[in-house]
């Protein structure tokens, strides 16, 4: 069966030829990187008290220690996109797995803010690499008809990782009697929150040895026999031969990948498809989603909830996020990517505006803000509704589209630039939050996120083109 564009693809082999078991193994292993992405990002939520006490941090210092991982993420995403064109998707993911292990051990043992920042930067390199390579790798080994659903698994694994970190942090804090209380071997619980990451990181490293290199990368490197062998396992011999020819022809129309591919060869301006990728990458962060994930415990404590309640709220947000991602998986290949983005933008703009209003009603009691009466409940419902809208739309869809929307020729370079922009936006939002919340207040801060969500609706309308059902070889710049 030919795709909507008429191009032959893996689906032409017929559903009975597709090795869904092998595809499931590949997706399961690749998306452990998403789990690590989520865990490494979420583990910081609940450790701020320990960090501030151990390193005597100011509000800005806390923001930088929390956000240090994001500078590594930006660098990792930028380097991984280009490096994967040189040494392969799988090889770079193996390097990322090793970085997760090193970061977890060092962050937990850090005896100064500088050591902690360096440890988290190394972890960020791994997160940045995994964040862009997992969806790109999945998109390169799956049939177009189910590519969106399978690539969306990345976001579910990110949320499972976040939720896993929230649950682990809650359990450690509850068992020890608080995040700063002593736990095993005399170390405070917050240090063990980082050390526990070694377990899933080691699983990721070993599991990567079970999956093959991307067949598209193998064709680029002239290793067509290996590429055909991988594709044969995936789709059968006939489809494999056709797909190798398609990939070779798509690459033969141009030169070896380079960053200059992002510019129009005639006008020398940035290609529209690159701008579209940058819009998706940056606005996914400008709506403030990681404020909930990085600072959730601190946020809810600041308006009257106990540490125990705040950690439980984080877990609730994680569970709702997973449910929303599952709904997105059921719809992304049916109604498309763009409709989900538009629904998400509208829903986030509304719920963020409600949160901003709720925070404007906060009362100061004993020097600390508290939400009176039912306002706290309204804020809690709005915050979780916001998380649901995000994970129903921009959460999974951005990663899916970045992995599939760019032509083969520029995919690595475009992913490098879009990934760098995404993580730098994440860094700016995350590091600025403590200072913005303290200086401008939560009302103005969340008002900014609401305006960003509102603007994103119109940018999607103007810039984003639907990619549902299209073969990767048919993507144009």
What labels describe this entry?
477 residues; mainly alpha; Growth Hormone, Chain: A; two-stranded antiparallel ribbon; 2 strands; globular; disordered N terminus
- Relative helix content: over 70%
Which series of helices and strands comes N to C? Answer: HHHHHHHHHHHHHHHHEEHHHH
**Segments where pLDDT lies below 50 for 5+ residues?**
1-16
* Cα separation of the termini: 25 Å
CATH fourth-tier homologous superfamily? MFS general substrate transporter like domains
**Which overall shape is indicated by the principal axes computed on the Cα atoms?**
globular
> SS-based structural class?
mainly alpha
Report the count of strand segments: 2
- How many structural domains are formed by the residues? 1
Strand content: under 5%
Largest beta-sheet details: 2 strands, antiparallel
| CATH arch. level architecture | Up-down Bundle
Number of helices: 20
Taking strands numbered 1, 2, ... along the chain, how are they ordered across the largest sheet? 1-2
């Amino acid at each position: 069966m030919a795709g909507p564009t008429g191009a032959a693809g893996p689906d032409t082999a017929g559903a009975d030829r597709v090795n869904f078991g092998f595809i499931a193994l590949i997706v399961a292993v690749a998306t452990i990187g998403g789990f690590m992405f989520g865990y490494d990002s979420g583990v910081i939520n609940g450790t701020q008290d320990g960090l501030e006490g151990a390193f005597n941090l100011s509000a800005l210092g806390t923001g930088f220690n929390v956000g240090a991982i994001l500078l590594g993420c930006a660098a990792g995403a930028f380097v991984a996109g280009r490096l994967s064109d040189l040494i392969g998707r799988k090889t770079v993911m193996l390097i990322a797995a090793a970085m997760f292990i090193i970061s977890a051990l060092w962050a937990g043992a850090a005896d100064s803010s500088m050591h902690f920042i360096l440890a988290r930067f190394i972890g960020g390199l791994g997160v940045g690499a995994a964040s862009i390579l997992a969806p790109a790798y999945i998109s390169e080994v799956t049939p177009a008809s189910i590519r969106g659903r399978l690539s969306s698994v990345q976001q579910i694994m990110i949320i499972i990782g976040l939720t896993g970190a929230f649950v682990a942090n809650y359990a450690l804090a509850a068992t020890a009697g608080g995040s700063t209380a002593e736990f095993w071997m005399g170390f405070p619980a917050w240090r063990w929150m980082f050390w526990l990451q070694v377990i899933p990181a080691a699983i990721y490293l070993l599991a990567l040895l079970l999956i093959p290199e991307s067949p598209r990368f193998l064709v680029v490197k002239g290793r067509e026999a290996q590429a055909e062998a991988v594709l044969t396992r995936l789709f059968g011999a006939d489809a494999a031969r056709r797909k190798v020819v398609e990939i070779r022809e798509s690459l033969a129309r141009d030169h070896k990948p380079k960053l200059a591919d992002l510019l129009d060869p005639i006008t020398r301006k940035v290609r529209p498809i690159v701008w579209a990728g940058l819009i998706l990458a940056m606005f996914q962060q400008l709506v403030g989603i990681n404020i909930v994930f990085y600072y959730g415990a601190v946020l809810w404590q600041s308006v009257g909830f106990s540490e125990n309640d705040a950690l439980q709220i984080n877990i609730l947000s994680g569970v709702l996020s997973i449910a929303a991602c599952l709904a997105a998986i059921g719809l992304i290949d049916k109604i498309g990517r763009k409709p989900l983005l538009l629904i998400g933008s509208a829903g986030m703009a509304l719920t963020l505006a409600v949160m901003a209003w709720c925070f404007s009603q906060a009362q100061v009691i004993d020097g600390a803000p508290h939400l009176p009466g039912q306002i706290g409940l309204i804020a809690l419902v709005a915050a979780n509704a916001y998380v649901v809208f995000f994970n129903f739309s921009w959460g999974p869809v951005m990663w899916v589209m970045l992995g599939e929307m760019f032509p083969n020729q520029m995919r690595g370079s475009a992913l490098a630039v879009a990934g760098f922009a995404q993580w730098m936006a994440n860094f700016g939002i995350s590091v600025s939050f403590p200072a913005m919340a303290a200086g401008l207040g939560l009302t103005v801060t969340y008002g900014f996120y609401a305006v960003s969500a509102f603007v994103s609706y119109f940018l999607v309308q103007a810039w984003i083109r639907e990619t549902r059902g299209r073969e990767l070889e048919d993507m144009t710049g």
